[in-house]
Write a structure and sequence with these properties.
heterodimer, A: alpha/beta, Alkaline Phosphatase, subunit A, eight-stranded mixed sheet, 16 strands, 31% helix, B: alpha+beta, 35 helices
Chain lengths: 479, 1007
């Protein structure tokens, strides 16, 4: 399937009119929507930048707080055998935890069973997802550089422990540009309860032009995209005033342009108002889930309180992808100590509701995408910033563990039913075929037709990449 | 910070691929001498040099230069041991015989190739001189060369002289001077960040006296608005914001004084050297100036990881990693901005491109190893500051007890004071006596242990809640007060005194009974040395279990609470007391170690108690006291007096800076002194190597790169040494970097395009001579930034039109206008735009300084990070009218409107802002409520100003349109514009005209 980025011809025309001044800079910025690279996405590469792409669109589901690997996917009999004993990995390594004194070995309070043809272990807390394991590919031994939420979330989203670096979605937007001018390229759907740790820092464009940052959609508001329309308080702005004003503005701006040489930025601004008008027209429809059938709404769990919010956002994610948004990030859990995956106090009481709220919606999303043929060129990612400890915090909680955690992907280019990597017998440390955020990102970028080592930007003296100076494509999980 | 990588070039692959064919035909037996050029080099080129060659040097190793190939390498050097192929790591790598396999991707070496390499090494690894290659001498670099003295430049030089010489050489002509309207709009935005008012425009345009422009420039430079504009540029570079960032984005209530310091200092035209010294070590170098301490806000301006640096356990690797990273940010802030070198690239290995070693980098880590980011106290009033320093010096004297000093203490004058004090003290001096616990029990299964000092330690499995009961004999004949001490212990999180993970405790109820009865003694006048906010000590005796006493964030230190008995208790020898410590809040908020005390003093009792030795002296009759005892007593009395005087001084103000001394905040405590710093191999906390001593960069020749600071000297000595190093006239970087920075903000582009990178990866100067001339004039003059500004903006180069003289060739000869054949058009930045809108509406409030305006609704969040809602801000409130530099900057949730205009969040050092044109920006300018509301304000202003009953409606509307255009675009409309805009205004009202003009390119750009 070869699908030319919509605006390619326009961009070429545009380039032809550039003369002097800050031309190239401004073009890149405006066309951040469809970035003009020296090596722009190649039509023959199926939208890829450096090689043919298998994936053109991404949905990333992010479990905020550090989802427990051994309770969900990484089955470890040793934890059941040694439950209640003092934790001793037998490696002479110091056992420490970020916020507590290490307790005794804590076995998963819910059972795990092998599911699907692949026999993937999965918790009974995820009965719906269990039906899709043959479509999923697991990074079973991921490791983080930190055991702290702030730096951990930055690392998993931007490749750096510190704030101010572009996130995954921003890099994809920068590298590949938009597939549509009707909607933003990179959309973020935060939990209705609030933003995750680091708030907007996780969706930041960092030092890339601001146009690449995630557009935050607040699904609880009647106007999900900010500034799409004039504020209700401004009664002087009527639809006619708006329309006539825009026409007159463009006339004035063209006259100004005629008197001011050829400056691509001035042209770009004129064009940006035209694009804005298109977005005003198209965006509301994309967020209108009322047009979805009752069956679909039920499938995503919109009719039940625990699943309603996450289900709605998964459904919106599908609608956005369908309308050619390039990258959608859906968050589960807000920042803070509760109502997320940061289950310090009780795995029983805190993990179960998180699974309940996401299990059915994610399964529905996978099924729906597949049924509509969207999985042909869309990949769904499931991530978290780190894992949890094999021993207890307090009596039945778990502290942070950057030593080992799990992520998975499903969809285009992914070899379903596979897994890569292995942790130690306690899921404490990743030991075999260890992967990092860099490897995960390198792999997904690879699917998008991007060589992660060649997607770089010079900033404050260094060529910066999403994968820093690391990253290997994990081909074992690719079809 | 990490490896610098250049983009891989296809050509390299192509060469490599061609080489394959040659490499494989080499089939030598062991005896045949291997020829490096013919046999070996092709293998290295094909298989190794993509990562170990001219472009990249992974592991600090390259195989295209003999010197490096035979000797360098981060982890395994030497990789080639001539004569010993078997021992050479290189062979192990290419055979996959070990942990490391090379090449990591792509085709492995063939057996024949490996054999060739083996033979070559075994035959002595001969590498001919003519192909040895050369490692570039990184320190031979333009920006590091000494800066000539001012006198070096002969003749009557000017900016225009240098610029025109280059233009002529390139066959270009300078543009004509811009018209006066353009000039005043340009130079006003440029110097003060505001457009001229219509009145200022007409005054300047009509000024026929000589030097009208120069007088305009002087007026702008003298305006207090100047500092507000230029401080903003420096705040970008410092990446200043008023919350921590990260997952616990706490508000920094005391960050703003640094912003005011900058504004005042720039307005006062402080010499640049002093400005830098103050921001790095003002507290030591200018101790008498309180503002020089405020200046240290520079070092603390960037983000701070509260979770890692305060909340997690002190004994974790994460804490140590976070400390190195936190200092990394301070180092980058100083060295990037002042010296223009990307020193942070040397954290994991020597800088790939610039002559900066890892040792240099860690020497800088050592400079900042004695500070944290915290609220530091200072006295804004100079006299109060002097008094406080005197008292603190006295206090130190009392602690040091030099013989000389002690000898003065027994003078009659001193003894008189001691006598008066003792008289006043009365019975308050009585001692608290620890009780002797006889039994101690936990209701919920904690393991309690009695320690020798009479305290009871709680250990074992931590229950969620607990009630601890302690029964003790009473050893005084009378009890008037009881005291509870909560103490530290190494077994407790953060050393306690609580057992919660953060070191806190919650005492729900504190009850005292006569043992064997249910008679609860009534406690009154509770006092504690510290109360957690909303968790005061009174809550421990309010007979309500849901309320409790807490001590967060002051963990890691002991605390005490005293209570008086409403009725003194007279006891017989057999009376015992039962103390019940209810800790029912849950979440493990338990007391870790408690000690109980009783007193028989007449209330009010002192909480802080006389130390036992002092009490003993006081109990001794005056004539029986030894000389030593009298000295001790005098020292004690003087200490009390100093403390009393200190307590009478106005409370010091706080400013968020780098600080060695500050009030502990939970797990964030003042460092014990400069922390030892070790060079971290590959930047890895688990691989510490040699200790690092404070210093700076060796590549700056003529200055010592390691500082002569005694190891026992306070940390501030290290910062002072760095400040001197930075501002030494022999340091060529400082002066080149600042004049270039100023140049950039005037022309939209520096003479060196990379403001903070004067190294090999940065750009070369377009006009090196001009840069050096400006820099040396600046350094050797009075380092006045205002003079530099004047010099630049009065140049003919600056005053040029944006329209180039020759149209066609320019685009080809100098497409980016690097030679400045005309002026660059710039886009208004976020602050200029917002301030210009407010000025047009007539509502701009020019009040300066003070706490920042929070232009959002603020509610407490789920955890530390508060909830911020910009949509709920009342734009018409007074908090919405000041200049943008006084806006509160929330790091993880910046103002979305300002963000679309590229206003930085403060996450990254931002010497140059991006300058984007986006759809989001168009939407924001067209629809944001800030613009919409101010359109109404501007329209109302204009309507108010043009209320003439004589004019016809049409005439009136035309006048109003004229005025609106004048307020927003600084000019009158053309006839055509007037017709169109008036027609539009007639139909849709004046506010819509404002909206249109505020969205126009003419408004948004400056010619």
């Amino acid at each position: 399937m070869i699908n030319l980025p919509y605006s390619l011809p326009m961009r070429r025309d545009f380039l032809a009119t550039v003369a002097g001044g800050f031309g190239s800079v401004a073009l890149t910025d405006l066309l951040g929507r469809s970035r003009l690279f020296a090596d722009a996405p190649q039509p023959g590469f199926n939208g890829g930048l450096h090689h043919p792409a298998k994936v053109r669109r991404v949905i990333q589901l992010f479990m905020n707080g550090g989802a427990s690997q051994m309770d969900l996917f990484d089955y470890k009999p040793e934890l059941f055998r040694r439950a209640g004993e003092k934790f001793d990995p037998g490696t002479n390594e110091r056992v420490e935890a970020a916020t507590s004194a290490p307790g005794n070995v804590l076995k998963p309070p819910f059972e795990l069973h092998q599911r699907g043809q692949c026999g993937r272990w999965i918790s009974d807390l995820l009965p719906h997802l269990a039906g899709h394991v043959d479509d999923m590919a697991f990074f079973m031994a991921m490791t983080s550089k930190t055991n702290v939420h702030g730096p951990g979330s930055y690392l998993m989203n931007t490749g750096f422990l510190l704030p101010g670096f572009p996130c995954f979605g921003a890099w994809v937007s920068y590298g590949l540009g938009s597939l549509t001018d009707n909607l933003p390229t990179f959309v973020v759907l935060p939990d209705a309860r609030g933003l995750p740790y680091n708030q907007k820092g996780n969706f930041s464009a960092g030092f890339l032009p601001v146009t690449h940052q995630g557009t935050i959609i607040n699904t609880t508001l009647p106007e999900p995209i900010a500034d799409l329309r004039a504020p209700a308080s401004a009664t002087f702005i009527t639809p006619e005033a708006d329309r006539d004003g825009l026409a007159l503005l463009q006339r004035l701006n063209r006259a100004h342009l005629a008197a001011n040489d050829q400056d691509s930025r001035l042209e770009a601004r004129i064009r940006s108002y035209e694009l804005a008008a298109r977005m005003q027209l198209s965006a509301p429809e994309a967020f209108d889930i009322g047009s979805e059938s009752e069956a679909t709404q039920k499938q995503y769990g919109l009719d039940q309180t625990p699943t309603a919010d996450f289900g709605k956002r998964c459904l919106i994610a599908r609608r956005l992808i369908e309308r050619d948004v390039r990258f959608v990030q859906v968050w589960s859990g807000a920042g803070g100590p509760s109502n997320n995956w940061d289950n310090h106090n009780s795995i029983v009481k805190e993990l179960a509701p998180m699974c309940l709220s996401t299990d059915q919606p994610i399964a529905a999303l996978l099924a729906d995408l597949k049924q509509r043929g969207l999985l042909e060129d869309t990949v769904v990612l499931w991530n978290t910033e780190f894992g949890r400890m094999p021993f207890s915090q307090g009596s039945e909680g778990r502290d942070h563990n950057g030593g080992s955690f799990v992520g998975w992907m499903a969809g285009a280019g992914v070899k379903g039913g596979t897994s890569y990597g292995e942790s130690d017998p306690w899921a404490w440390r990743a030991v075999h075929d260890v992967t990092t955020n860099y490897d995960f990102h390198a792999t997904v970028l690879h699917l998008l037709g991007i060589d992660h080592e060649r997607l770089s930007v010079r900033h404050n003296g260094a060529n910066r990449r999403l994968t820093d100076v690391h990253g290997h494509v994990v081909r074992e999980l690719l079809s | 910070m990490d490896e610098l990588l250049r983009q891989f070039r296809w050509s390299a692959t192509a060469i490599g691929l061609l080489a394959v064919g040659f490499a494989q035909i080499v089939l030598a037996d062991d005896a045949t001498p291997v020829d490096f050029v013919r046999d070996v080099r092709p293998i290295l080129q094909r298989s190794c040099q993509r990562c170990h060659g001219a472009e990249k040097q992974k592991g600090d190793y390259r195989l295209d230069v003999r010197q490096s190939a035979l000797h360098n390498g981060e982890s395994y050097a030497p990789n080639i041991i001539p004569g010993k192929a078997d021992d050479s790591p290189l062979i192990k790598f290419v055979t996959g015989d070990g942990d490391v396999v090379m090449p990591p991707e792509g085709k492995p070496l063939t057996a024949a190739e490996v054999r060739t390499l083996r033979q070559w090494i075994d035959q002595g690894a001969k590498w001919p001189d003519d192909v040895a290659g050369e490692l570039k001498d990184k320190s031979d670099w333009w920006s590091l060369r000494p800066l000539s003295l001012k006198d070096h430049f002969a003749g009557n030089l000017s900016i225009d002289h240098f610029i025109r010489a280059k233009l002529t050489a390139a066959g270009l002509r300078p543009a004509i001077e811009a018209d006066r309207l353009t000039l005043i709009r340009r130079v006003s935005f440029d110097l003060i960040g505001l457009p001229p008012t219509p009145e200022e425009v007409s005054q300047f345009v009509g000024d026929v006296e000589p030097n009208a422009y120069e007088r305009l420039v002087d007026r702008l430079l003298d305006s207090p608005r100047f500092g507000e504009r230029w401080a903003r540029h420096w705040l970008d570079a410092a990446h200043f914001a008023e919350t921590h960032g990260h997952d616990q984005d706490r508000i920094r209530e005391h960050a703003w004084p640094y912003r005011d310091y900058l504004i005042q200092s720039l307005n006062a035209d402080k010499p640049y050297g002093q400005l830098i010294q103050e921001q790095v070590a003002g507290d030591v170098l200018y101790p008498d100036d309180p503002q020089a301490t405020v200046a240290l806000g520079f070092l603390a301006a960037g983000p701070w990881d509260e979770s890692s640096l305060k909340d997690i356990r002190e004994d974790t690797l994460d804490r140590q990693i976070a400390r190195y990273l936190d200092r990394d940010d301070m180092i980058a802030t100083v060295i990037n901005n002042v010296s223009g070198l990307t020193v942070q690239c040397a954290r994991c290995h020597d800088h790939k491109f610039d002559p900066i070693s890892q040792a240099d980098y860690y020497a800088l880590q050592a400079v900042f190893s004695g500070v944290e980011r915290a609220n530091r106290s200072y006295d804004p009033d100079v006299d109060v500051g002097t008094r406080r320093r005197t008292l603190l010096k006295r206090k130190l004297q009392l602690q040091q007890k030099s013989a000389e000093f002690v000898a003065t203490l027994l003078s009659p004058a001193h003894q008189q004071l001691v006598g008066d004090w003792e008289h006043k003290l009365g019975t308050q001096g009585a001692v608290w006596k620890p009780v002797e616990p006889e039994s101690w029990t936990s209701s919920d299964g904690a393991t309690l242990t009695r320690l020798p000092d009479g305290s009871v330690l709680s250990g074992g499995t931590r229950p969620d809640k607990d009630t601890v009961t302690i029964i003790a004999a009473v050893t005084l004949p009378k009890v008037t007060a009881v005291k509870l001490e909560v103490l530290n212990d190494d077994s407790l999180p953060h050393r306690g005194p609580g057992r919660q993970d953060n070191g806190n405790l919650h005492l729900s109820e504190f009850e005292v009974y006569i043992d064997g009865s249910d008679t609860r003694l009534e406690l009154v006048n509770p006092r504690a040395d510290f109360d957690q906010q909303d968790w005061g000590i009174a809550r421990a005796i309010d007979k309500s279990e849901p309320t409790a006493w807490g001590i967060y964030p002051k963990v890691s230190q002991p605390h005490a609470a005293a209570f008086e008995l409403r009725e003194p208790l007279n006891v017989s020898g057999l009376t015992k007391l039962r103390f019940v410590l209810k800790q029912r809040h849950g979440g493990g908020h338990l007391i870790g170690r408690a000690r109980l005390m009783i007193s028989d003093a007449t209330p009010p009792v002192r909480l802080d108690l006389l130390p036992e030795p002092i009490a003993a002296i006081l109990a001794t009759r005056l004539e029986n006291r030894t000389e030593q005892q009298r000295v001790e007593l005098t020292l004690f009395q003087m200490g009390e007096e100093v403390d009393r005087e200190l307590s009478l001084l106005p409370k010091p103000s706080l400013v968020y800076t780098a600080a060695a001394e500050f009030e502990p905040q939970g797990g964030l405590v003042p460092p014990p002194g400069p922390r030892p710093i070790q060079i971290l191999h590959r930047g890895d906390i688990k691989q510490p190597r040699d200790p690092a001593l404070p210093g700076a960069l060796e590549c700056v020749t003529g200055l010592p790169s390691r500082f002569d600071v005694a190891s026992e000297a306070p940390e501030s000595a290290r910062r002072a040494a760095l400040a001197r190093w930075l501002t030494d006239p022999k340091n060529p970087l400082t002066w080149r970097v600042i004049v270039n920075r100023v140049w950039h903000h005037h022309f939209g582009r520096g003479l060196v395009g990379t403001l903070n990178d004067f190294g090999h990866m940065g750009e070369l100067p377009t006009h090196p001579e001009l840069l050096d001339w400006l820099a040396s004039e600046f350094r050797d003059g009075d380092q006045s930034l205002k003079k530099l500004h004047r010099q630049i903006v009065t140049s003919a180069t600056y005053r040029q039109s944006v329209h180039a003289m020759a149209e066609a060739p320019i685009a080809n000869l100098d497409p980016e206008n690097r030679l400045l054949s005309h002026m660059n058009r710039t886009r208004l930045d976020a602050e200029c735009l917002r301030d210009a809108v407010l000025q047009a509406s007539g509502r701009l409030d020019l009040r300066m300084g003070g706490p920042s305006d929070r232009q959002f609704d603020l509610q407490s969040g789920i955890h530390v990070t508060p909830k911020v809602d910009y949509t709920k801000f009342n734009l018409d409130s007074d908090l919405g009218r000041r200049r943008s530099i006084y806006r509160f900057l929330f790091r993880t949730l910046p103002d979305p409107f300002m963000e679309t205009l590229d206003c930085p969040s403060g996450d990254q050092i931002t010497p140059v802002r991006t300058n984007s044109v986006t759809v989001q920006q168009a939407l924001a300018l067209w629809n944001d409520v800030f613009i919409a509301r101010n359109c109404e304000h501007i329209a109302a202003r204009v309507e108010g100003e043009t209320n003439s009953s004589q004019a016809s409606d049409a005439e009136l509307l035309r006048k109003r349109v004229d005025r609106t255009v004048e307020l927003i675009l600084c000019r009158r409309p053309t006839d055509d514009e007037r017709i169109e805009l008036t027609a539009y205004a007639m139909k849709h009202g004046l506010a819509n005209v404002c909206r249109l003009l505020l969205n126009s390119n003419e408004f948004l750009f400056v010619n």
